[in-house]
């Protein structure tokens, strides 16, 4: 043999080996960790991901998948079927997060691959493949066939994979994800995500960032449950079926059975149920049967309304005025970006809010996993749910982009309207993506939301461009509140007493912390001072917090304030204005003082309603 040939062969083999070697998964050290970062492991989010429509025969597909960066939409012309991809990746995660094992930037196009087996006992039933959320567009292939496509980064979708899966051996699944975020020409619901993070805009999330699972169901099966249970014990249910034709359904709730038909609303009544409220978050489990399909769900009995009480328009819960007081809750994590490291971590934030005596949380221009809303239902936290906004940089949607925003708004309401804790929908935040030449779109959108869900309040525009739509006259003002007051500032509108006076955002006071609690990215650290207020010591921060809460209490006593939102639950990247630092390791407030100051707010609102308003 000629020596050069001997040399040549091993080189080729090792090159081929290197090319085909998939990089093993490991957490990439993020710019800041949490106590949960290294506890996540490779078997994350084991809980059934859809607690209001839970099936017993299911299999979690979360875990280690493989991933490869792609360069354009044209990569779908030749999907990498049967080929190993370059890197292992954790699912669910954001590709930009340390927990993904990738921590990439500009993840505009990507391939994901996994393989799964289907229990042979499921043969003869429908095999449903569920994605809780993929940001932003997902094209799904099973065993070489394209089986589905979804657009919208925050919503679940189900693919009937029955015809495409094999019951003998492995099924290959490929997912192509395209996430344009705010790249040139893209105007899509993104919330605070941006390809160029700076100060109040943060690292984006691309990819499969919520759970993936398969389940078995009969041919005609339940696809969605719409449930509203009110303070009078009336339950209004629509059981949607895959056939879309009316068939009998049976609901078992609290020991009694109720029958109706699918695909149209029907009602039944429970005698004197224990009502759901933040102080007493009673939930009722129930089961629904449709033919051979049986699912578990739950609800809570409560009624949300608005009414004039003592001359002031107020939110009403179960017939009583409620002062809704919560935080701006953005749901960002230093290790997971949009995906909390675990359910425990996610619930920790909410438990801190309960401990501080908040009765509400404003889920800010993000939509969470279903387990978040379940946690609010269980803990007793009202939710103000924002629609994720379009771009905040003044680039407005064209007709097609506006139509897609409207479609996704409908999906938001339809997928979330059965959580007892959600009290209010928000359509626009501070004018972001809000057209305002000629016709104001918030009027039509408010009607649309009302037609899908007449049981809740609508905050059509939180902050800035209020033209009179919806149930709230909602002002944003930093740091001091201006809630339902006869004074206001540029960019806000004068208070309108025909609607609920609301302080949709205030506070935002910052207090810098040492580098081990900061998002250690120089460009973020350099923007810390682009803020309303920095308090130099924790004592000063606590004094300021106390002052601002007192100011809101005075406005509640004297004027027409129906609630407010403190900015914010946690620090995020270049912002240091959280109750908690971004790593959740420091809690800034004095818990007892905050709890008392918040109680004083609730008492002030109650006192005003019952006529014991102090005089000035
Ligand atoms: C590597 O991949 C190439 C192309 O997919 C294939 O031809 C080759 O046999 C693979 N090599 C090994 C060592 O698996
Ligand atoms: C994708 O393919 C089309 C049609 O072949 C071509 O016009 C376009 O330039 C390609 N785009 C990219 C980004 O390669
Ligand atoms: C993917 O590739 C593009 C270039 O095609 C690059 O700009 C980008 O940073 C890469 N993203 C990741 C996450 O590797
Ligand atoms: C029941 O809910 C549907 C929407 O799901 C609504 O159209 C209908 O008016 C409600 N009926 C009652 C009696 O509340
Ligand atoms: C409802 O179901 C959940 C989960 O299946 C369970 O943890 C809870 O104890 C049940 N509640 C009641 C009141 O039975
Ligand atoms: C905040 O603290 C970091 C780390 O200690 C420091 O580098 C930065 O300059 C500080 N920024 C401000 C505005 O205080
Ligand atoms: C904010 O901090 C950056 C970097 O530390 C500095 O260049 C800038 O001048 C500061 N701006 C203000 C308004 O203090
Ligand atoms: C009015 O509400 C306050 C605060 O809850 C309470 O202390 C007071 O007793 C109430 N007064 C009447 C007349 O109900």
TrEMBL record:
Residues 229-302 form the Glycoside hydrolase family 2 immunoglobulin-like beta-sandwich domain. Residues 1-18 form the signal peptide. Residues 108-188 form the Glycosyl hydrolases family 2 sugar binding domain. One of its GO terms (molecular function) is hydrolase activity, hydrolyzing O-glycosyl compounds. It comes from the Eukaryota. GO terms for biological process: carbohydrate metabolic process. Pfam families: Glyco_hydro_2 (PF00703), Glyco_hydro_2_C (PF02836), Glyco_hydro_2_N (PF02837). Residues 344-467 form the Glycoside hydrolase family 2 catalytic domain. Keywords: Glycosidase, Hydrolase, Signal. Belongs to the glycosyl hydrolase 2 family. PANTHER family: BETA-GALACTOSIDASE (PTHR42732), BETA-MANNOSIDASE (PTHR42732:SF2). This is Glycoside hydrolase family 2 protein. It comes from Cadophora malorum.
């Amino acid at each position: 043999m000629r020596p050069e040939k001997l040399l040549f062969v091993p080189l080729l083999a090792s090159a081929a080996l290197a090319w085909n070697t998939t990089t093993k998964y490991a957490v990439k050290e993020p710019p800041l960790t949490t106590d949960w970062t290294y506890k996540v492991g490779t078997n994350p989010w084991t809980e059934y991901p859809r607690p209001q429509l839970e099936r017993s025969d299911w299999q979690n597909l979360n875990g280690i998948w493989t991933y490869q960066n792609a360069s354009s939409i044209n990569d779908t012309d030749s999907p990498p079927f049967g080929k190993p991809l370059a890197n292992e990746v954790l699912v669910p995660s954001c590709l930009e997060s340390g927990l993904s094992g990738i921590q990439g930037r500009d993840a505009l196009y990507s391939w994901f691959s996994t393989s799964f087996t289907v229990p042979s006992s499921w043969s003869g039933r429908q095999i449903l493949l569920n994605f809780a959320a993929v940001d932003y567009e997902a094209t799904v292939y099973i065993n070489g066939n394209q089986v589905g496509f979804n657009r919208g980064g925050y919503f679940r979708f189900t693919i009937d994979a029955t015809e495409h899966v094999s019951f003998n051996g492995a099924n290959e699944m490929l997912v192509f994800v395209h996430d344009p975020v705010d790249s040139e020409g893209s105007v899509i619901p993104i919330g605070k995500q941006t390809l160029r993070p700076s100060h109040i805009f943060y690292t984006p999330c691309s990819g499969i960032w919520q759970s993936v699972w398969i389940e078995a169901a009969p041919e005609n099966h339940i696809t969605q449950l719409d449930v509203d249970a009110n303070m009078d014990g009336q339950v209004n249910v629509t059981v949607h079926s895959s056939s879309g034709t009316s068939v009998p359904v049976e609901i078992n709730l609290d020991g009694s059975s109720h029958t109706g038909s699918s695909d149209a609303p029907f009602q039944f009544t429970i005698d004197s149920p224990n009502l759901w409220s933040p102080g007493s978050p009673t939930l009722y489990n129930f089961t629904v049967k449709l033919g051979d399909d049986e699912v578990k769900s739950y609800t809570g009995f409560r009624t949300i309304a608005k009414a004039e009480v003592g001359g002031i328009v107020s939110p009403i819960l179960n017939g009583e005025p409620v002062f809704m007081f919560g935080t701006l809750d953005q749901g960002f994590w230093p290790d997971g970006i949009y995906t909390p490291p675990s359910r425990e971590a996610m619930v920790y934030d909410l438990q801190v809010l309960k401990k501080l005596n908040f009765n509400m949380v404003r889920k800010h221009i993000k939509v969470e996993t279903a387990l978040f809303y379940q946690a609010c239902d269980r803990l007793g936290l009202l939710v103000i749910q924002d629609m994720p906004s379009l771009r905040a940089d003044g680039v407005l949607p064209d007709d097609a982009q506006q139509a897609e925003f409207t479609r996704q708004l409908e999906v938001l309401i339809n997928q979330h309207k059965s959580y007892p804790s959600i009290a209010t929908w928000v359509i626009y935040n501070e004018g972001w993506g809000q057209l305002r030449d000629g016709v104001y779109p918030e009027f039509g959108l408010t009607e649309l939301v009302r037609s899908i869900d007449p049981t809740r309040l609508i905050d059509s525009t939180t902050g800035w461009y209020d033209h009179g739509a919806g149930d709230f006259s909602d002002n944003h003002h930093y740091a001091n509140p201006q809630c339902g007051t006869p004074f206001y500032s540029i960019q806000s509108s004068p208070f309108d007493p025909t609607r609920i006076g609301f302080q949709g955002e205030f506070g935002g006071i910052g207090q810098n912390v040492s580098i081990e609690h900061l998002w250690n990215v120089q460009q973020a650290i350099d923007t810390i001072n682009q803020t309303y207020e920095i308090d130099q010591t924790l004592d000063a921060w606590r004094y300021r917090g106390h002052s601002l809460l007192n100011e809101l209490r005075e406005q509640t006593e004297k004027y027409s304030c129906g609630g407010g939102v403190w900015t914010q639950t946690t620090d995020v990247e270049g912002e240091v204005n959280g109750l908690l630092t971004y790593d959740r390791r420091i809690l800034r407030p004095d818990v007892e003082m905050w709890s008392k100051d918040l109680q004083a707010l609730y008492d002030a609102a109650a006192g005003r309603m019952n006529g014991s308003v102090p005089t000035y």
